[in-house]
Write a structure and sequence with these properties.
Blueprint: H1 2-25, H2 32-46, H3 62-78, H4 81-95, E1 101-104, E2 111-118, H5 128-142, E3 146-149, H6 156-164
Parallel strand pairs: 2-3
Antiparallel strand pairs: 1-2
Helix pairs in contact: 1-2, 1-3, 1-4, 2-3
Length: about 180
């Protein structure tokens, strides 16, 4: 029982540190080489794409148990300590309150729709929705289903994020409204 408690504490610290490293990667005070490692580690940790697919017995979880912790350790060593502590505090504050939401629907014929995706205006531009969308997409794919989402073409930021997560544009949909008084 004690081992399980320690694993839970370690997972909570790792989650906080991944978020802090991500925030530090966007900080202009952080050296470029630390930013590069931090961006690689967080992108790899939150990406639904693994070097070794999770369905490969035992080896599938090797990247999550070895590559991510080693990359996180390296990123933490490269980020100046005062900046890292500042971002750790911000990550802990963010963990205490919802900062974004992503919904998804049960799969129908092997396809699950992701949406709605929403972040309050004062919480935007921190990567919360992108990370959460990536996580939800990974869960859908891990269950053997395909993921799809509808996006607003007038929002280039979300479209860029979704394409970086592996979503591809398939079709455009036009919406018309007919007014009965015309």
């Amino acid at each position: 029982m004690q081992v399980l408690g320690q694993l839970k504490r370690w997972a909570k610290i790792a989650r906080r540190d991944l978020h802090a490293v991500y925030l530090a990667a966007r900080d202009p005070r952080v050296p470029w080489h630390a930013k590069a490692v931090a961006l690689f580690v967080t992108a790899y940790a939150f990406s639904p794409i693994d070097l070794i697919p999770d369905f490969v017995p035992i080896l599938g979880y090797l990247d999550d148990l070895v590559i991510v912790p080693i990359g996180l350790w390296l990123a933490i060593r490269l980020i100046p300590p005062d900046i890292l502590e500042e971002h750790r505090a911000a990550a802990e504050r963010a963990a205490k309150e919802p900062v974004s939401m992503v919904g998804f629907h049960r799969p129908v014929f092997g396809v699950s729709r992701v949406g709605p995706v929403y972040t309050p205006p004062d919480r935007r531009r921190h990567g919360y929705a992108g990370a959460l969308t990536s996580h939800v997409t990974a869960l859908i794919l891990a269950d053997g289903n395909q993921a799809c989402l509808f996006t607003d073409l007038a929002n280039p930021t979300s479209n860029r994020i979704y394409q970086a997560l592996g979503y591809e544009p398939v079709t455009d949909v036009d919406q018309y409204r007919f007014d009965h008084n015309a």
